[in-house]
Design brief:
The complex is a heterodimer.
Chain A lengths: L6 H4 L3 E2 L5 E2 L15 H14 L3 H28 L13 H26 L6 H25 L25 H34 L3 H11 L6 H34 L11 H27 L8 H31 L3 H12 L3 H13 L7 H4 L2 H27 L15 H24 L5 H15 L1
Antiparallel strand pairs in A: 1-2
Helix pairs in contact in A: 2-16, 3-15, 4-5, 4-8, 4-9, 4-14, 5-6, 5-15, 6-7, 6-8, 8-9, 9-10, 9-14, 10-11, 11-12, 12-14
Chain B lengths: L9 H8 L3 E8 L2 H14 L4 E4 L7 H4 L7 H27 L12 H27 L23 E6 L7 H10 L4 E6 L1
Helix pairs in contact in B: 4-5
C-alpha cells in the first residue's frame, strides 16, 4: 500500500499529529516534509550548489577520491606502456579482473535508470528526490565500466576498430558477436542516459542561472540552461520528450545487462552457458545498483541535511527493492546449481562442485554470506528505516555482487575442459590499483557533480510540493 | 492572497526606455491561478500569449491554445529510421559486402542482428526526441525579451507568469492591462524588447 504513492494512494494517506503523512499501515509515508514550499526546496537544493555548505567535509571526501583517481591514471599509463601482462590474466583465465569490474560497474549503473525511467512510468512519486542523483551515478558507473574492456583490448588506441566505419580494408565488425553487441549496448546506454539526464537537468540549471549572484556562475549555468525560461509551451514538449526518453530507457536498462550476460551465455564454458543468465544478470544489476545508491545517499543526506527530501520512506522503499531483487538473484544461484546437477553433464557437475569446494570455494561461500544471508535482515522494517544498519547491508551487497562476478568469471575459466589447461588466477597489484582507481574516478566525478549541479531535481520537487499542498487542502 | 496590484505607468516607461513593447506580464502566486488566467485569456480571444512556470503545470499549454505536439511523432520516425538503418547496415555488411560462410548458415541470420537493431532504434529515437524538443522550443536561445521583466527570475523559482504579447491581433495596452487586473495577480509589468 505504501508503495503506491501516485494520485490514488495520496487519498488514502492520513495526517498524524505532527502534520506528517502516514500510510494506513503506519509506514513512514512522507515524500517531502509538509513545511517545504516552492521557495524552500529551491533554496535548499540550489544552495548546496551555489553556496557550497559543509566545505570541509566536501574537501575531506574529495581529496582522497582524487588521489585514487591519480592512482588510476598511473595504473593505466603503465598498462599502456607495458601491455596487459602486468595483470594477473593468463590462458585460460584471459578475462580476469577487467571483466569482473566491468560487469560490476555496469550493474551499479542500472539502479539509476531503473529509478529514473521505470519508476517514472509506474508513477512512483517517491523516486523524485533520488532520481537525478542516481542518474548521475549511472553515467559515472558506465564510464568506469567502459574503461575496463578498453584497457583489456591490449592496444586501446585501436578501439575504433570495434565500430562500423568505412575503412580502407573494407572490413566490418562481426555483428553476430555478443562482444560487438556489447559495444553498441554500452555506448547506447551511456548516450541515452546522458540525454535523459541532461533533459531533466535543463530547467534546474535555469533555476541556478537565475539564483546565481556572481557573473561566472550566471554565465556557466546560463550556457548549460540554453535560455530555458519555463514557457508552458516549452514545458509541454519537454515533458513529452522526457516521458518518451523514459519509455526508451526502460527496455534499454533491461537489454544492457542482458547483452552483457550474452558475452557469457553464448560461450560454451560450463558455468556460463545458461539461459537463466539474462534475467539473473538484470536482477543482480538492479540489486547492486540500489546497494550503491544507499551507500552514497545515506551519508550525503546526513551531511547536507536533506532528511526532509530523501526521507526514511525512500530508504524503506529501496530496502524493499533490494530484498525483492536479492531473492531473484538467489533464485538464480539455486537454479544454476540445480541445472548443473539435473543436466547430468560431467563438466557442468564438476563446475558446480569446484565452485563450492574447489580452490576458490571460499569466494563462493563469502558470496552466499554477503549476498544472500546478510540481506535477509531487510525483512525487518527496523533495519530498512535505520540508515546505519541499511548502510551496512548495502555495503555487504556491493561486496557480494562483486564476488558474484568474480565467481562467474574466474572459477568458470580456471578449470578448462582438459586438465592440462587448469590454471590459477592471482590478481597482481596492478589489478587492484586499477580497480581501486576506478572507485576514485567514480567518487571524484560524483563529488564534482554534488558541488556543481543540483543533485535533486528542483522542478520535480516543486511539483511534489504543489501536489502535497493540493492533497492537504 | 495577492498583495496590492501595482501597475507602472506605460507612458513613462516608454519615454525613458524608448524600446518597443513586447507584451504585458502578470505574475501569480499559485499554479491554479495561472491556469485560470490562461483559460480566461483564451476565452477573451487572446491567442499570442505564453505562460512561464517553475514546474510543468498540467494542461496549461492546452489552455493557451497549443493543441498539437510533434515530439512523439518525430521520435517514432527516428526510432523506425534507426531500426531499419541498423538492420540494413548489418544485413548489407554481413550478407553482401563481406559474407562469411560458416557451416552454410544463412547470410541473413536475422536473430543475431536483433540486439544491434534494437540498440540503434533506441539511440536514434532518443537523439530525435532531444533534437526535436530543442528545435521546436527554439533552444538554445540565450536571450529573450521576457527576461527584461523585473522579477522574472522567479519564473524558475516560485512564481507563475502569464504574458499577453503585443503581436496578438487584439492587443491593446490599456485593455490588456485592465483585463489582467481582473485576474488579481501579484503585479503586472510591461515587457520591453
Amino acid at each position: 500500500m505504501e508503495r503506491n504513492s501516485g494520485g490514488l494512494a495520496a487519498r488514502n494517506m492520513e495526517w498524524d499529529d505532527n502534520g506528517s503523512m502516514v500510510s494506513p499501515l503506519g509506514y513512514p509515508a512522507r515524500l517531502i516534509a509538509p513545511a517545504e514550499s516552492f521557495r524552500t526546496v529551491t533554496d535548499k537544493i540550489g544552495g548546496i550548489v551555489l553556496e557550497h555548505p559543509r566545505e570541509k567535509i566536501w574537501w575531506t571526501a574529495f581529496l582522497p577520491s582524487f588521489c585514487l583517481l591519480t592512482v588510476l591514471l598511473v595504473a593505466l599509463s603503465y598498462l599502456v606502456f607495458m601491455g596487459i601482462g602486468i595483470w594477473g590474466v593468463n590462458i585460460p583465465i584471459a578475462w580476469g579482473f577487467a571483466i569482473v569490474n566491468f560487469v560490476w560497474w555496469i550493474g551499479i549503473g542500472h539502479a539509476g535508470t531503473f529509478i529514473s525511467a521505470i519508476l517514472l512510468l509506474l508513477l512512483q512519486k517517491w523516486r523524485t528526490t533520488i532520481n537525478r542523483f542516481t542518474e548521475a551515478m549511472t553515467l559515472f558507473a558506465v564510464m568506469c565500466a567502459g574503461l575496463f574492456p578498453l584497457a583489456h583490448l591490449g592496444r586501446p588506441w585501436l578501439f575504433y576498430w570495434l565500430l562500423p566505419y568505412p575503412d580502407t580494408m573494407a572490413l566490418w565488425p562481426q555483428f553476430r558477436s555478443p562482444l560487438v553487441w556489447d559495444v553498441f549496448a554500452v555506448s547506447t546506454y551511456f548516450t541515452v542516459s546522458f540525454i535523459f539526464w541532461y533533459v531533466g537537468l535543463l530547467p534546474d540549471v535555469a533555476t541556478l542561472r537565475d539564483k546565481a549572484l556572481t557573473r561566472g556562475k550566471q554565465v556557466f549555468y546560463g550556457i548549460l540552461a540554453m535560455g530555458w525560461r519555463g514557457s508552458a509551451r516549452h514545458w509541454q514538449r519537454h515533458q513529452s520528450a522526457y516521458l518518451l526518453l523514459a519509455g526508451l530507457a526502460t527496455p534499454l536498462v533491461l537489454s544492457v545487462h542482458s547483452v552483457v550476460s550474452f558475452d557469457f551465455a553464448v560461450a560454451i564454458v560450463p558455468g556460463w552457458h545458461s539461459t537463466i543468465f539474462p534475467p539473473y544478470f538484470v536482477a543482480g544489476a538492479i540489486y547492486s545498483g540500489f546497494a550503491m545508491v544507499l551507500n552514497i545517499v545515506i551519508p550525503i543526506r546526513k551531511i547536507y541535511g536533506l532528511e526532509n527530501l530523501i526521507t526514511l520512506r525512500h530508504l524503506n522503499n529501496m530496502g524493499n527493492v533490494m530484498l525483492a531483487t536479492g531473492w531473484m538473484v538467489t533464485y538464480g544461484y539455486i537454479m544454476e546449481a540445480f541445472m548443473s546437477w539435473y543436466s547430468g553433464e560431467v563438466f557442468e557437475r564438476y563446475m558446480m562442485w569446484n565452485r563450492a569446494f574447489g580452490p576458490y570455494g571460499w569466494t563462493f561461500w563469502l558470496l552466499i554470506a554477503t549476498n544472500v544471508l546478510i540481506p535477509q535482515a531487510l525483512w525487518s522494517r527496523r533495519v530498512r528505516t535505520s540508515p546505519a544498519l541499511l548502510f551496512c547491508v548495502a555495503l555487504s551487497v556491493n561486496i557480494g555482487m562483486w564476488l558474484e562476478r568474480f565467481v562467474i568469471v574466474i572459477t568458470s575459466l580456471h578449470r578448462d575442459f582438459v586438465p592440462s589447461m587448469w590454471r590459477m588466477y592471482y590478481p597482481t597489484v596492478w589489478d587492484w590499483l586499477t580497480f581501486f582507481g576506478t572507485i576514485g574516478l567514480f567518487l571524484t566525478l560524483l563529488f564534482l557533480f554534488i558541488r556543481y549541479l543540483p543533485m535533486i531535481s528542483i522542478s520535480e520537487s516543486r511539483e511534489l510540493v504543489a501536489e502535497q499542498k493540493g492533497a492537504a487542502r | 492572497m495577492s498583495t496590492a496590484v501595482q501597475t507602472l505607468l506605460p507612458e513613462i516607461e516608454w519615454a525613458t526606455t524608448g524600446r518597443r513593447i513586447y507584451g504585458v506580464m502578470a505574475e501569480f502566486e499559485h499554479p491554479e491561478q495561472v491556469l485560470e488566467a490562461a483559460r480566461r485569456a483564451h476565452t477573451e480571444g487572446y491567442r499570442r500569449m505564453d505562460a512561464y512556470t517553475p514546474f510543468p503545470v498540467e494542461g496549461l499549454a492546452e489552455e493557451l491554445g497549443q493543441r498539437s505536439n510533434a515530439v512523439p511523432l518525430i521520435t517514432l520516425l527516428g526510432g523506425i529510421a534507426g531500426g531499419l538503418g541498423g538492420y540494413f547496415m548489418q544485413w548489407y555488411s554481413m550478407g553482401m559486402l563481406y559474407p562469411f560462410n560458416i557451416g552454410e548458415r544463412p547470410r541473413n541470420s536475422w536473430p543475431m542482428f536483433i540486439p544491434i537493431t534494437f540498440e540503434l532504434t533506441v539511440l536514434i529515437a532518443s537523439f530525435s526526441a532531444l533534437i526535436v524538443m530543442l528545435a521546436l522550443n527554439r533552444l538554445p536561445e540565450p536571450h529573450h525579451p521576457v527576461f527584461n521583466t523585473p522579477g522574472f527570475e522567479r519564473a524558475t523559482i516560485d512564481r507563475f507568469f502569464l504574458c499577453i504579447e503585443a503581436r496578438d491581433e487584439k492587443f491593446n495596452l490599456g485593455e490588456v492591462t485592465a483585463f489582467l487586473e481582473q485576474l488579481k495577480p501579484v503585479r503586472i509589468r510591461e515587457v520591453r524588447e
